[in-house]
Amino acid sequence: MKRSFRTSTLPLALILLSYATTCANATGQRLAALPSPSLPTQAVGSAPPMPAWAAFCQRLPGECAVNSDEPSTIELTKSAWALIVTTNRAVNKEIKPITDQEHWGVEDRWDLAPDGSGDCEDYQLLKRRRLVQQGLPARALRMTVVVDEEQQGHAVLMVRTNRGDFILDNKTNAVLPWRETGYRLVKRESENSAAWVALGGVPSPMMTANK
């Protein structure tokens, strides 16, 4: 009986091993496959920064500094794309969602989720820091304010590349071209100075305080 059990389970073990290897290879291929090129966003003038962003920059000015010697777009190689996708997924999993009111007792505060909890902008600021630490230029990673599917202010991270502008979002692990998010883009950080630029003339929300 014991010998029969071993003999009958061996093919199953091989099948499971083969399946796991196939899944791992498929995941690697999806990460390595570059997205199709798309049109970049276009700035249509200046825009006032979010008040909570300004307060964040006073506390941590290095997070908001613009180095004009850096490229303003990333050459989107397979390794850079894999880094962007995996960082988006990892930070989304790592941070526990909580509103600023629950977290800090204020309506809107931008931070780096130092205690592992935060809302939308905290996810994106931490993603930017992680990507910069791994060699991507901060100048090409722009905090962006949108109006989401609930008609609320929401913060995402825009990655500007030679294949178009892509959005990192805590609401999804998919890194999407900006036109495919379903959001209305409002404004983003400028790549030329510590200022903001408008994206399409949509009225700006006062805060990005949802999860």
What's the short story on this structure?
The chain is α+β, with helices and mostly antiparallel strands and 211 residues long. The protein contains 5 helices and 9 strands; from the N terminus they run H-E-H-H-E-H-E-H-E-E-E-E-E-E.
* Gross morphology: globular
Largest sheet: 7 strands, antiparallel
Strand numbers in spatial order across the main sheet = 1-9-8-4-5-6-7
Low-confidence spans: pLDDT under 50, at least 5 residues? 1-10, 13-29
Give the overall average pLDDT.
87
Classify the secondary structure makeup into a structural class: alpha+beta
Which percent range fits the helix content?
Answer: 25-40%
What is the overall number of helices? 5
Here the CATH topology equals C8orf32 fold
Q: How far is the first residue's CA from the last residue's CA? A: 56 Å
Tally of distinct domains: 1
What's the total number of strands?
Answer: 9
Radius of gyration: 20 Å
Can you walk me through this structure?
The chain is an alpha+beta fold and 211 residues long. The protein has one domain (34-198): C8orf32 fold, CATH 3.10.620.30. Helices cover 36% and strands 20% of the residues. It contains 5 helices and 9 strands, in the order H-E-H-H-E-H-E-H-E-E-E-E-E-E. Strands 1-9-8-4-5-6-7 form a 7-stranded antiparallel beta sheet. Strand 2, helix 4 and strand 3 (117-118) form a beta-alpha-beta unit. Helix 3 (78-94) packs across helix 5. It is globular. The chain starts with a helix and ends in a 13-residue tail after the last strand.
